Amino acid sequence: MDIKALRNETPGCKHVNHLNNAGAALMPQPVIDAVQNYFLEEANYGGYETAAKHEREVEQFYEASARLLGCKPTNIAFTTNATDSYDKALSALEFKEGDVVLLSKNDYPSNFISLLSIQKRIGIKLVEINNTDTGEIDLEDLEAKIKQYHPRLLSITHIPTSSGLVQPVNEIGNIVKNYDLLYLLDACQSIGQMEVDALSTQADFISGTFRKFLRGPRGSGILYASDKALTQGLSPLYLDMRGADWINEQHYKTRDDARRFELWEFSYANILGSKVAIEYALKLGMQNIWERNQHLTALLKTELAAAGMTLQDRGKVQSSIVTFTMPVKTTGEKVKKYLNDKGINVNFTSKSVAIIDFEEKGIDWAVRVSPHYYNTEEEIFSLVEALKEFI
């Protein structure tokens, strides 16, 4: 990669050392232009009229998304964020009292909350899969619990928001395909930093977002619905006239494709910005992005350890999210503010979003640093020096 050129194409690099890409990455100029130009045209010529003019570009979003996930355009829906995607997929299942949902101990907190809400309303049962010593879910325990509980759904978060752990999603899919259940994969933190091939995962639904490692606009998400899910007629609890046609006073007919999960009104500026973000990532190549990020995170971990930080990430494979605790008593808010004041963007993860994981680790919070390919080695060194000063 030509890192200098990529940074020149990223206006934010001139203002901040941005190491919070797991929160929201800096957008490259082509993405910014796509969103701003559309807003300007919409303001000058009207919303419906501008949408009609850019109809072909909107269709290209679904084509680009299909290339990104290795599927068909008919498997793609545009949403507002990953949780929106997850909840729409979840709402497509007609749960009844006593239904079992299997999930990992590292699932995203919003996913836990959504499932607990269904448990409160309907009386489903949530069963957690055990972890291995290295942090990933235990595949043997997964299969044993599928046989024991005959679950309706399996929920897996590919990369937790609270650590760099990467779950073996393809191996999970190879087990799940042999049983009668649905597989919902949260790929919020993985899409854009590593290859996510929908068919290889064998997931029935995949939720994702654009603001993180895809470097797209906020308020934009993606939902993959498999042919199996579509053929079974799964659709969101609340449809509108984009997802279905009103046939007569008492009946409607859903769309044949995944756009049944969309609503009539959404941000056309964001869908065009998201299209450009996908094309930008695909041009760089997912493998190139992964290798660059692995280089940056390896350097970061080495420097953090040498500076006295305690690394908290587990997993045989680890992503471009690095979490650590400090050798001095302080708070996440103080560390974040100190670094922000020096022009360095990081985040911290509190126990409230990783209750099970952090209880096992015996910690209440951790600093979260998430470099991306456009970051530099010098920015890594700058962060570590600032942490040494803080200590």
UniProtKB/TrEMBL annotation:
<dbReference type="Pfam" id="PF00266">
    <property type="entry name" value="Aminotran_5"/>
</dbReference>
<dbReference type="InterPro" id="IPR015421">
    <property type="entry name" value="PyrdxlP-dep_Trfase_major"/>
</dbReference>
<feature type="domain" description="Aminotransferase class V">
    <location>
        <begin position="19"/>
        <end position="380"/>
    </location>
</feature>
<keyword id="KW-0808">Transferase</keyword>
<dbReference type="InterPro" id="IPR015424">
    <property type="entry name" value="PyrdxlP-dep_Trfase"/>
</dbReference>
<protein>
    <submittedName>
        <fullName>Aminotransferase class V-fold PLP-dependent enzyme</fullName>
    </submittedName>
</protein>
<keyword id="KW-0663">Pyridoxal phosphate</keyword>
<dbReference type="GO" id="GO:0008483">
    <property type="term" value="F:transaminase activity"/>
</dbReference>
<keyword id="KW-0032">Aminotransferase</keyword>
<dbReference type="InterPro" id="IPR015422">
    <property type="entry name" value="PyrdxlP-dep_Trfase_small"/>
</dbReference>
<dbReference type="InterPro" id="IPR000192">
    <property type="entry name" value="Aminotrans_V_dom"/>
</dbReference>
